[in-house]
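INFO batch 0412 | record 1 of 1 | parsing
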Amino acid sequence: MNQLINSMEVKEPVKRSKRIFYFDALRALAIITVILFHVGTRLDDPQFFKFLVASPVSWLTIDILKTCFRCGVDLFLMLSGALSLGRDWEVGPFLKKRLTRITAPFVFWGTLLSIIVIYASLNYANVATVFNTNAVISSLDPLTFLTYLYNSFMAKNWGFGPYWFFWMILGTYLVMPFLNRWLCNTNFKEIELFLALWLITCIFDRTLLIAFPVKLSYVSGAIGMVVLGYYLRHTPRKIFAKTSTAIMLILIGALSCIIVSGMLSTPPEMYVFDRYSIFLAIEVTGIFLLFKNAYININFLKNPDGIVRKAIFSIAKYSYGIYLIHMVILNFILAFTIDILPYNALIVTLFVGSLIISWFIMAILNRIPYLREIIGAK
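INFO prediction complete | emitting tokens
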């Protein structure tokens, strides 16, 4: 009998992936929306176009890209909260793992891409124009390079704007140990009170741009998104388990962004809401709940070996690396297509090109043993 039990125990352990698919799907969606948003912001810049007011269709397209698709960073923050908070972990190992994971790719890509941009700017006029390096880079002297490198890390150089995310998420990770200790020793009503205060800041400070009389800055911004992600993952509220609730929230948030932005815009200047505005908070809440509650009912996503699910996993795996390199790639594509493609075709080309090329670069470098640890693959 003992031999039979032992033989069964040998065959039994089959390690299964601990990854939760809807988190991967949300991460893939987040990086896609980030790229779409940056396509919109790049093509809204009048410096590279002969017209300031595009056709109504083009204007509406850019408006949607810059409003509804500004939710990518919010989704990343919510995922950080959903995955990391409310668990029993030690501060030291947590910070070491998280900070190493975000810092190494930040330094690697910031340095490498700065070198590439400087070299290309000195050899191609279009590249220098698109990256706005004409007045910055005139030679390869050490001071010029170090200044440009510093500005890349500080998200001041064109093409490196998304690098602000590193500094924001760094601060968020440093605060997480305190949040985690609180969440492990609190109840959902207290969390809901915190989120209610945070939503007040979303309405007044981030949407109406009116300071609320009670100072609530310590519960505003990114930290609320992190707590919201934890709350939505674990909430016992039955209303949040309904797909209809998720769809309603997405529609309310997205349509409000489009309509109110259109009302406040004066072409060619588009009004863009703060990423922590109440409308985007409503939209990302709906998106998170939709993926949490409804994805399993979609037939082509049920097969873990299906091509769609594998693609989603792959994009999610490389999402941080894609985030760090996509804007530079987008600018390179823009430099060589701006004079030959019409406006609407340029939108599609920039989005598809930046996503596919970034994804391909990450997939190739991930096969190299020493690089895979520093390129931003999860």
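INFO post-check: Residues 22-34+56-365 form one domain.
INFO record closed
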